[in-house]
Fold these 2 entries.
Entry 1:
Amino acid sequence: MDKPSFYQTHSKFNNNGKPMIYGCCNCLTHLTTTNLVISDRYTGSSGNALLIYKVLNVKVGRSMFRKMTTGDYTVADICCHQCGKVVGWKYLKSSAEDQKFKEGRFILECAYITVVG
């Protein structure tokens, strides 16, 4: 039997075993589903954040360098394509070898998203 995925083992990420949809808290545009959550143990500038495999309906801003708790990264803010609200960032490059798994992944800040379905 297959091991349940992250979202299936955490009731806050599923609705009777089915993934939920996260959207922009400002305009409710769909951004991702809970089955794409890699981890909920991240922190953004507004508090709790989620590491996500893939998001949609966002615009990726210009790249910038940021010093974070786990190292130095090149990142780009991501904004809702509908209303323009910054909802998180995309990891573009990590300077630390043990943090390379984040490259190409996204952070969605919980304060800027909501369950829409």
Entry 2:
Amino acid sequence: MTMDLLKQIATSRLPISFYRAEDIDKIRILRAAGLVVALVPAPSDCLALSGGTGVAQVLAVTQKGREELMHFNSPELRHPRWRMRMPTILTRHRSTGASSSPESRRPAGPQ
């Protein structure tokens, strides 16, 4: 089934290549549906839209593809750890007291 292949692709390290004709046809379907970004060979029979020998390479699963997988309830599908949370940027705030003003930081001297 095409969704099983999408699930396999989503859990694999990308890019991934497929060589079997039936897998290449499934990649064409996933690409036409906008679920993956893929490079597929041109169809050899334009009427049947089935390709000959070649290699299909999947470069990415689109956001729509991930949403479809979540719709089909794939609990074992995990996003990469770097996508789980945004990095936390810590900044130190200066106190707003009189000692932090630019005038108070100047050395006392003749004026």
